[in-house]
Amino acid sequence: MPEPPDFAPNAAVYDDAYYAAMYRPHWFFRNARKYRERDAALLRAVRPHAGMRLLEVGSARGDTAFFFAPLVAAVVGVDAAPVAVEAARAAAAARSLANVTFEVADARRLPGNADASFDAVLLADFVEHVTDEVLVPCLAEARRLLVPGGALAIYTPNRDHWAERIKAGVPGLQQEDHIAVRPSAEVVRLVAAAGFSVDDLFFSASPYPLLGAVDRLLPGVAICRFRTVLRALRTA
Asked: What is the largest CA-CA distance in the chain?
């Protein structure tokens, strides 16, 4: 694995405190509705089944891997931050999950896994954390690891949404860990260029009280599309 500065220009952000604070409830930003709708979106994108072998890239402390564990045969989580993998392994042991493993690895190169060894690859809240120098080879590696017809699932903030536009335009509102929030069209372009065929593309509304209602009323308007959620299949 490369040293932290190689996997992200802001690698110092990803310390113990970062992972300890992850998913901390907040009535406005991280309320129960947000996670219910995130779970539903991930299920639609991944479409888990009992025999599935699932790879999660950017698995952090393991929360998403644990969500899918009862629904699939095996989950492998990889993350470039050793502190994240340590936390995930400890949590997996505490839960006595035998079908979940975590590895420290660079998303651009996963030589420990054979070609066509997974039925699905999930990038949930990962794309916005990496530049194209990481994402493009990561997508190529995902294609190598997928069986023919296997699914790539992505869940990421949409740069077109009004909240992301405000964050980008107002000093002090930018999230220091979100270094590459992309418009949905750019995510689709990169996925297609990597040799995938988009099977399902949809968007979630923001969970914010009152403001989220506007997104749900106008789902066809670009600025009301909070999260880009994509399912793409490996072409032959």
From this structure: 48
User: Residue 233, exposed/middle/buried by CB under 10 A (0-12, 13-18, 19+)?
Assistant: middle
Torsional class of 58: left (φ above 0), alpha (ψ -120 to 50), beta (otherwise): left
Can you give the C-alpha Rg of the chain in angstroms? Answer: 17
pTM for the model stands at 0.94
- Output b/e per residue, 58-76; b: 16+ Cβ within 10 A: bbbbbbbbbbbbeebebbb
Kindly state the tokens that stand for 110. 């996963």
Q: Are strands 74-79 and 146-157 parallel, antiparallel or unpaired?
A: unpaired
d(CA 95, CA 173): 36
Q: Are 90 and 75 in contact (CB under 8 A)?
A: no
- How far are the Cα atoms of 76, 118, 132, 159, 216 from residue 53, in angstroms, in the given order? 8, 5, 26, 31, 34
pLDDT tens by residue, 17-72: 999 999 889 999 889 999 999 999 999 999 999 999 999 999 999 999 999 999 99
Domain residue extents for the chain: 4-234
CA 203 to chain centre: 14
In CATH, what class is 4-234?
Answer: alpha beta
Q: Which tokens go with 78?
A: 């990889």
